[in-house]
Write a structure and sequence with these properties.
Largest sheet: none
Number of domains: 1
Order of helices and strands: HHHHHH
Distance between the termini: 29 Å
Radius of gyration: 15 Å
Number of strands: 0
Strand content: under 5%
Structural class: mainly alpha
Mean pLDDT: 89
Number of helices: 6
């Protein structure tokens, strides 16, 4: 059973201060636009990871996809997503299908909560 308070869980998923620090700006319209773009892009990447891991068994391709969004996840403040992408990249390069499937399941669980934390931070 997870006993972390909701606030701690959100901050473990998403650091709302990260992107404004990266941009050296706190303009809400810009932040909102970047978050929306990131969420749309990541949703598509997650679908592509699902296909690469579960259908195509293309773990090298999954590793490449994970690598392609790891840095943007760090910059946007999506902490847990960035961690999972780094692990997916490593295990994909190793050809570890079982671990990649487990990490994908964790990503699919963390992603909606990360999006919610982003929305709450921008309110």
């Amino acid at each position: 059973m997870n006993t972390l308070p909701a606030r701690s869980k959100s901050s473990a998923l998403f650091d709302a201060k990260r992107l404004p620090q990266e941009l050296e700006s706190d303009e809400q319209a810009l932040l909102q636009s970047l978050h929306e773009h990131y969420q749309s892009h990541l949703s598509a990447i997650i679908l592509a990871l699902q296909k690469a891991i579960n259908i195509d068994q293309d773990l090298a391709g999954a590793a490449s996809l994970a690598h392609s969004v790891r840095a943007s996840s760090i910059s946007i403040g999506a902490r847990r997503v960035a961690e999972l992408m780094a692990e997916l990249e490593t295990h994909g390069e190793r050809g570890d299908s079982q671990t990649c499937q487990q990490l994908l399941a964790q990503l699919q669980e963390a992603w909606p909560a990360t999006c919610q934390a982003m929305r709450e931070a921008l309110m």
